[in-house]
Amino acid sequence: MMGQLWSPLVAVTSHWRGKVNAQIAVSVGAASVVPEQPRVVVQIYKENFSWELLQNSGAFALNFLRPDQLHLIKAFGLVSGVDVDKLSEIAHRFGLTGSPILEDCWGYLDCRVINAMDGGDMTCFLAEVVDGETISEGEPFWWPQARRVIPAEWNWEWEAKIAEQIQKSNQRMGHIDYTSWNPAKSLVPISRPRNPLIVNDMNEITSLIEKIHATPHKAVIAVAGAGSQAIAWLLGVSGASRTILETIVPYGRLSMIDLLGNEPEHYVSPMTAQDMAKAAYQRGMRLREDDSPVIGVACTATIATDRTKRGDHRAFIATWDDSQLRQYDLVLEKGARDRAGEEELVSRLLLQALAQSSGVEAGFPLGLTGNESPHHDSVPHLSWVQRLIAGEIGSLTVYSDGRMVPDEHFNNSARRVLFPGSFSPLHQGHQTLVRVVSEMLSAEVVSEISVTNVDKPPLDETEILKRVGQFLGNGKVVLSRAETFYKKSQLFPGSTFVVGWDTAVRLVDPKYYNCNETDMLTALAEMWASGCRFLVAGRVDGDRFKGLAEVPVPQGFHPIFQAIPESNFRVDLSSTELRDRC
Predict the structure, then answer these.
(1) Which residue, 479, 494, 527, 486, is CA-closest to 414?
(2) Is residue 460 part of a domain?
(3) Is the peptide bond prior to 425 cis by the omega test (within 30 degrees of 0)?
(4) Which of 66, 71, 103, 313 is the most interior residue, by most CB within 10 Å?
(5) Would you give the DSSP letter of residue 467?
(6) In total, how many domains does the chain have?
(7) pLDDT above 80 (res 514)
(8) Is 141 a member of any domain?
(9) What is the span of the domain harbouring residue 354?
(10) Which of 132, 153, 185 is the last residue of a domain?
(11) Share of the chain above pLDDT 70, in %
């Protein structure tokens, strides 16, 4: 009687971590009477290579063979998948669960495991059917039919294989593991799949995130509409503090405006993703506490919700780093997933984008359908000087060897001394003042040039590079867009600014604050609160040498001003006079 309990002849296909396999099975059965929730059971012996793949992936496909496919019995049933790739010469595609689907067969069922029972020598898997199709007409092939028509030598091989299996099963059948099956073992959710297009392999995701955390890159991530699962994945793996500076979810209109500084024309668009990534990058440059490279990561998307959407479900992801903008656009196939499934897909793409910007190869599958294909593009940034002029960065440090570092982090524990000026040209008086101040304060003095000016046109790139070239081999210089000392104090808090007598006079003159004394006093108070001080060098005005004593410092603000004694520094030649002589 037991010899009559056969099912149609089925090729069970499975996959796990890049490996695929197919085996013949004759113990498959239906396990549901509810048409809307089809289920099947399949018995897989533990000695088979397919058992390892299926046990780990939690997914498989049942490919029902036709009578004219006898050759697949030998290809799939009499050869081990450990030794050969059984599907290398068989046309197949990957189904919704990632399992191989034979292009040519009677029909198939794509299945996800929801429970399992150990039998000692085998495991009986209960699975829900997530997809399926009858491809050919007629009836499927049954094992008793096959036994009558396959070549005699195949029968002999089959009998020998079964005899060996019986011997091994005899030894293992009594060793049943009665532990309840744990879906976490295969990392597959036991409920209706959120995304039937991929098997949620957290091992691969965790491995990728560990590699990202091992890089020196810091990231600010902003997501709206989708992508929050990627944030949870990143924060859920040890070492997240090495990578994540900040996460932002600007779902509300005002929140998005606050991030971008303006309201986007379209909230879900490539331009908005680009602007979000740029804003995230700029926040990262302000938030980092060292000179680690920064990546701004952004996602704006519209995916499945509790109401029907007319337009496409799509996601735009962008990353912005020191060298380039990377953009990823994806239109999702409607109806292929529920909202959670679409969220997972977008999060996987976002994770891949972060990995690529971090220099990490991302190899795990996204779980795309045949109708989905992400578009990827990258655009190199302008030169650092051009980006400063455009306002993309706040400052640019140029070292004596020509190396440029944007928005360089300054160690707040060290005294920072900046010497602002036009340096057109750099002359001996500047160099002498730098030496004197450095000796007075026992600190490095860094020259600073603002590429924008209050009462002059902004400098162009050629002029900026000309002025910076004077410092090559003579120390570093910082470029900024801070044309006023109030802006400088916000950009470089805690700094001591080296200024001339004439500059100090303008600093306390209400005329330069829209003729409003209150505005002047408020600005001085805020500069003081930011930790800034002013070191004043005297200079000749007419026939008199004037220093800090001749500056009308408002009452109460004297502590933020310090004089450089005339005996320490006096040079009666200005840059203007030098230019006039040329």
Answers:
(1) 494
(2) yes
(3) yes
(4) 313
(5) H
(6) 3
(7) yes
(8) yes
(9) 202-380
(10) 185
(11) 91
Q: What is the mean pLDDT of residues 78-90?
A: 82
Write out the two tokens for 2. Answer: 């037991």
Q: Is residue 87 a part of any domain in this protein? A: yes
The average pLDDT across 379-400 equals: 90
How sure is the predictor about 354, in pLDDT bands with cuts at 50, 70 and 90? Answer: very high
- Specify whether 181 is located in the same domain as 230: no
- Claim to verify: residue 478 and residue 517 sit in the same structural domain: yes
Supply 18's token pair: 């890049």
What local confidence, expressed as pLDDT, does residue 196 receive? 44
One domain for residues 418 and 548? yes
With a threshold of 0.70, does the pTM exceed it? no
One DSSP character per residue, 121-166 reads SEEEEEEEEEEEEE-SSS---BHHHHHHHS-HHHHHHHHHHHHHHH
How far apart (Å, rounded) are the C-alpha atoms in residues 166 and 172?
A: 10
Q: Which two tokens stand for residue 432?
A: 């002498």
Please enumerate in sequence order all residues whose Cβ is within 8 A of that of 488, keeping only pairs 6 or more positions apart, or say none.
418, 420, 448, 450, 480, 482, 495, 497, 532
Q: Which of 362, 380, 398 is the last residue of a domain?
A: 380
Check: CB of residue 312 under 8 Å from CB of residue 331. yes
Residue 285 C-alpha from the chain's centroid = 16
Report the amino acid identity of residue 298: A
Nearest partner of 20 among 75, 70, 94, 73, judged by Cα: 94
pLDDT digits (tens, 9 = 90+) for 246-274: 999 998 899 999 999 999 999 999 999 99
Q: Check which CATH number belongs to the domain holding 363 and give it.
A: 3.90.950.20
Beta bridge partners, 129, equal 111
Two tokens, residue 337: 């997933």
Phi and psi angles of residue 385, each rounded to the nearest 5 degrees, phi first:
-65, -40
- Dihedral angle sign, alpha carbons of residues 348, 353, 354, 358: positive
- Cβ–Cβ < 8 Å for 202, 344: no
Q: How confident is the model at residue 182, as a pLDDT?
A: 58
Evaluate whether 303 touches 332 at the Cβ level (below 8 Å): yes
Q: What is the CATH number of the domain that holds 570?
A: 3.40.50
